[in-house]
Amino acid sequence: MVANDQVKILIVDDEAGIRDILSRKLSSAGFQCLTAPDGKEAMKQLKSGQIDLVLLDVTMPGKSGAEVLKDIKAKYPDIAVIMVTAVADVQIVISLMKAGAYDYVIKPVELAVLLFSIGRALEKRRLILENREYQLHLEQKVAQQTKKIRQSFLNAITSLANALDAKDKYTHGHSQRVTEVAVAIAREMAMSEETIERIELAGLLHDVGKIGLSEAVLNKPAKLTAEEFQLVKLHPGIGEHILEPLIEDREILLMIRHHHEYYDGSGYPDGLSGGPTTQEQGGTAAAKDGPKRLSPGTMALSVADAYDAMTTDRPYRPAMTIEAACAELERGKGKQFCPDMVDAFTRRQVKAAKAI
Ligand SMILES: [Fe+2]
């Protein structure tokens, strides 16, 4: 309960006599009192002081009590307003209570009745403010928890990516670089932030399925045999399977599953093809009944993955130059790669070169 001397009350009444009586009575009860003869002055006082409660006359020349109540509630919804009325007109009182008045008292005002009404109004206001504070903290708490959950999810993902890094020398740094390039392509293509977030996770995890392959195959210092290559081709599906319990977002899982698909449909594991991206720049090709063709995000990832693979030393061949890799991407347009994604990649390369 707040002490009376900490409560500021504004008395609004056009009759000076009533203002004085109320002010005197309430001051003797310990309240801090201010007065105003009309709505205009009342709004001025409300603006300048920390007022907790307003005693508002219903009948005043100029703006009526009902109109002033409306102004107060619109600007200062947390202030408790008690209407002071000469006649107990039920209809008016109901409409005022509906408009946000906490209570009403009838003139001539009896101090005991007024104090009781003020006590109730302040208590109601305290509960409303406390409840709002609680809601606010609750929201903050939920936001903190959500952040924590997301962080622990990202930690789990990072552990997986690290597990692969430890096993496959080539992947070290590869996933990070692929993610950066794929995101740059996605931005160049003006894909949505939602799609870009998906690409970020898919990029970091696209090769996680290689955990299921033997190190002898992964780090073989020579070209793979046909059988070994068949094993390697399993890694997008294995990755999808490993991540299924961890990632609910089907779009991300599909980006991982399809990062070795070709635009012309000759890739693996499903032989899906791409298509014009102009109609669904940030969208997805994954319909409810399963993907019909590659999503733009997947095609961006595919270009980024191939580019990084070409420009990195492999156990069986040295890295290509950037120029040679770019020429290879150009040659692969419409075959391995979506032409729009390669163009976006090239634009980004040009911009990056200019920025240096
Ligand atoms: Fe891969």
List keywords for this structure.
single chain, 356 residues, alpha/beta, Rossmann fold, Hypothetical protein af1432, 2 domains, 5-stranded parallel β-sheet, two-stranded antiparallel ribbon, 56% helix, binds fe (ii) ion
What overall geometry do the principal axes of the alpha carbons give? Answer: rod-shaped
Q: What CATH first level of the largest domain would be assigned?
A: Mainly Alpha
CATH superfamily of the largest domain: Hypothetical protein af1432
End-to-end Cα distance:
66 Å
Q: Fraction of residues in helices?
A: 55-70%
Counting DSSP E segments of at least 2 residues, the number of strands comes to 7
How many domains make up the coordinates? 2
* Structural class category: alpha/beta
Largest sheet, in brief, is: 5 strands, parallel
How is the CATH topology of the largest domain named?
Hypothetical protein af1432
Tally of alpha and pi helices: 14
Low-confidence stretches: 278-289
Mean pLDDT: 88
* Rg on CA atoms, Å: 35 Å
Output the strand order for the largest sheet: 2-1-3-4-5
Q: What is the N-to-C succession of helices and strands?
A: EHEHEHEHEHHHHHHHEEHHH
Strand content bin: 5-15%
CATH architecture of the largest domain: Orthogonal Bundle
Ligand set: fe (ii) ion
